[in-house]
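Title: Comparing notes on inverse folding

I've been comparing how different people in this forum approach sequence design from structure. To keep things fair, I'm posting one structure and asking everyone to reply with a full sequence. Here's the target:
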């Protein structure tokens, strides 16, 4: 029996059925190569918490041979979605895709509180609402309460794992980025082209400093930058939490919004947004009118580092980094999801005055993985400890990455381990020492 014959009695949305088919579960040779690279299996050491084991569970479920019991759902929920198993599989099977998409089958949605449902359905989709909802958090950071609360450790005595949630919150970096700049800007009289800067929700709210760096870097590269203020969440959190309908709505809205401007590229500094935008065609039947728009978006989308590598930097415009010792930690969505591995390293190694050292296990997940760090706090921390051990051994001044979830998790790890190093986004490091073109520095046009 093949997956084409997914049992009638199991409710599998058509889009999920297509993804399960393309995951090629039928061809698993049970060799176990994927198990050797799985961060959750390294901690659990149980077959049901390995990619091979999870794949067997899903395969049996779609064939109608196994019910989605609490234990089965939990095994899938403990997958980080990092994609290391997909990279390792010699048979071309895509276990990670199967583990993400199966969550949209009602049996696998797991248990969610009314509050979590409210967040996903009503708040975590609209940038304006998210800005309002997170206002009290910014107040908490700005008034110095964050430092006070952390020093006193008072949250350890409160319920709902508040201390663990709070430990993920970064230091205050300023108001949300969207709203602070013109929608259309260029710093040169004759731009090289027009790019759309897609500002993801987490970056906008938590890392406005990174957004500023990305934005200015794109301008320094000589592009006209369109930054739509009314974009929607890319839909990745909803897909990963099994809210397919909501994810679909957001994909549709963004397909309409992101193509309103004629641009040569859609650039984003969030690896999760990149992966999601590139996967938009998966939401539609081939050859449907919507599929065409989704394909255009997928083709135009670039991770910031990918874009910079393609268009090139001028080495003579860099100030020296004066011996700064750095390393790079791969966001899983880039390394495993899109096989973007060499280009960020090449960029970093070419910077004047940089000492680059390779991080052992840079391709292993840091344990952030979106909501994983909140839902599975103990496991997330155990996975993070491996990363901190590797970082400690390198004695670097900074670790570079390219995703808000990784920035949050690494910052927490570095802070709690007391490591004297900075956690930076690639765009921050590049923008910091890259000068504007002298002849264009005076020109600044907006519309
Ligand atoms: S590596 Fe591929 S073929 Fe081997 S067990 Fe894992 S999924 Fe199956
Ligand atoms: S996606 Fe990552 S965590 Fe999930 S099974 Fe594969 S290797 Fe393990």
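Reply #1:
Here's my take.
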């Amino acid at each position: 029996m093949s997956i084409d014959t997914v049992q009638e009695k199991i409710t599998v949305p058509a889009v999920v059925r297509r993804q399960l088919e393309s995951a090629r579960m039928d061809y698993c040779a049970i060799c176990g190569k994927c198990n050797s690279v799985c961060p959750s299996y390294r901690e659990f050491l149980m077959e049901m918490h390995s990619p091979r084991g999870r794949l067997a569970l899903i395969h049996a479920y779609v064939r109608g041979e196994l019910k989605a019991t609490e234990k089965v759902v939990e095994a899938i929920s403990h997958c980080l979605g990092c994609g290391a198993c997909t990279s390792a599989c010699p048979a071309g099977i895509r276990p990670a895709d199967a583990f993400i998409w199966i969550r949209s089958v009602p049996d696998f949605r797991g248990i969610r509180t009314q509050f979590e449902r409210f967040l996903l359905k009503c708040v975590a989709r609209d940038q304006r609402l998210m800005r309002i909802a997170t206002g009290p958090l910014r107040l908490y950071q700005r008034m110095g309460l964050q430092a006070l609360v952390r020093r006193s450790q008072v949250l350890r005595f409160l319920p709902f794992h508040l201390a663990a949630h709070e430990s993920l919150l970064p230091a205050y970096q300023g108001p949300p980025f969207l709203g602070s700049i013109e929608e259309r800007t260029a710093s040169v009289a004759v731009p090289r082209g027009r790019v759309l800067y897609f500002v993801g929700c987490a970056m906008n709210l938590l890392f406005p400093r990174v957004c500023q760096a990305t934005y200015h870097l794109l301008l320094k590269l000589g592009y006209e930058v369109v930054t739509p203020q009314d974009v929607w969440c890319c839909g990745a959190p909803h897909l990963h939490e099994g809210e397919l309908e909501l994810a679909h709505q957001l994909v549709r809205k963004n397909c309409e919004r992101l193509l309103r401007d004629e641009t040569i590229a859609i650039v984003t500094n969030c690896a999760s947004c990149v992966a999601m935008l590139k996967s938009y065609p998966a939401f539609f039947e081939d050859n449907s009118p919507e599929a065409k728009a989704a394909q255009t978006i997928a083709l135009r989308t670039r991770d910031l580092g990918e874009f910079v590598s393609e268009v090139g930097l001028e080495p003579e415009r860099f100030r020296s980094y004066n011996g700064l010792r750095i390393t790079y930690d791969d966001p899983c969505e880039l390394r495993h999801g899109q096989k973007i591995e060499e280009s960020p390293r090449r960029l970093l190694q070419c910077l004047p005055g940089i000492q680059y050292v390779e991080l052992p296990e840079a391709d292993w997940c840091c344990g952030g993985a979106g909501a994983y760090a909140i839902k599975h706090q103990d496991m997330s921390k155990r996975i993070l400890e491996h990363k901190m051990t590797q970082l400690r051994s390198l004695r670097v001044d900074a670790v570079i990455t390219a995703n808000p979830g990784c920035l949050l998790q690494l910052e927490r790890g570095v802070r709690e381990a007391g490591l004297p190093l900075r956690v930076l986004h690639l765009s921050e490091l590049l923008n910091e020492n890259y000068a504007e073109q002298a002849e264009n520095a005076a020109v600044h046009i907006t519309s």
